[in-house]
Amino acid sequence: MQYKEYGDANNPFMMFIHGGGVGGWMWDQQVHHFSHYHCVIPELMSHNPFSIEQSAKELLLLIEKKANGKPVIVIGFSLGAQIAIQMLSLQPSLIDFTIINSALVIPSPTVERMLQPFIRLSFPLIKNKTFAKLQAKALYIQEDYFERYYQESATMKVDTLLQILRENMLFSIPPDFHKAQGKILITVGDKEKNNMKKSAKALVRSHPNSEGVLLKNIGHGVSLAQPAFFNRFVENWIKDGQLPEGTAIR
């Protein structure tokens, strides 16, 4: 799997895992803010065919290779958050701090089956810039990142997209998730879909030491929508255990 490294290799290890439909560039604001950490940004779509479990295994190997006994922090968004959950389940003692943003863990097999023919029919829309701008807006992608987002979307193959959607929509909480030994923060925006909010509750209830927060006035993509707020609450939670502003999830 391809990845980029930034920051100070002598300080705690911090991995940011991007969501579906975007790339490692979604974390540019975080890389800049956390330049005093050893930041690693993987590119999930460089792995083909895509698999949440295989991605998790490869990222765990990367952490073992790069962290060298330092504290390990993993932050995942959407599809990347699902991978982070899988990583915690595969190696419960490796990661010290995990932030899980907007992870879907309630499988929707019926919706997934219905989506397949629709995706194949509507796939040409991906190359339509007007459609792409609507999608970018929903993900809080700023104008200066649009061309990059559009080019990556336009070059994606339909079978790759279907595989990503399949993995995303059929994902559920792994049996060993509750064994994870590090600290876990689960967040979801209050403007996200109900299934995403239910997923956050399910995650909090399935791990005895996890904490969850419903973030106010946020949809799908807090790190892109409000990067300064996101950076601040990540830093405060890691340093002092301070929860971000919002409503506790129980």
Description:
- The protein has an 8-stranded mixed sheet with strand order 1-3-2-4-5-6-7-8, with helices on both faces.
- The N and C termini lie far apart (36 Å).
- The mean pLDDT is 94.
- It contains 10 helices and 8 strands.
- The chain is globular and about 50 Å long.
- The chain has 250 residues and is of the alpha/beta class.
- Helix 8 (194-206) links the parallel strand 6 (183-189) and strand 7 (210-215).
- Helix 2 packs across helix 3 (79-90), helix 4 (109-122) packs antiparallel against helix 7 (158-169) and helix 5 (129-138) crosses helix 6 (143-154).
* Total beta-strand segments: 8
Structure annotation, total helices: 10
Q: Which outline best applies? A: globular
In the predicted model, the low-confidence regions spanning at least 5 consecutive residues are none
SSE order, one letter for each helix or strand: EEHEHEHEHHHHEHEHHE
| Proportion in β-strands | 15-25%
Binned, the helix content reads 40-55%
Distance between the termini: 36 Å
Give the integer mean of the pLDDT values: 94
Derived structural class: alpha/beta
The oligomeric state of the chains shown is: single chain
Strand count, sense and barrel status of the largest sheet are: 8 strands, mixed
Q: How large, in whole angstroms, is the Cα Rg?
A: 17 Å
Please give the order of strands in the largest beta sheet: 1-3-2-4-5-6-7-8
Short description:
The protein contains ten helices and eight strands. The protein is α/β, with parallel strands linked by helices and 250 residues long.
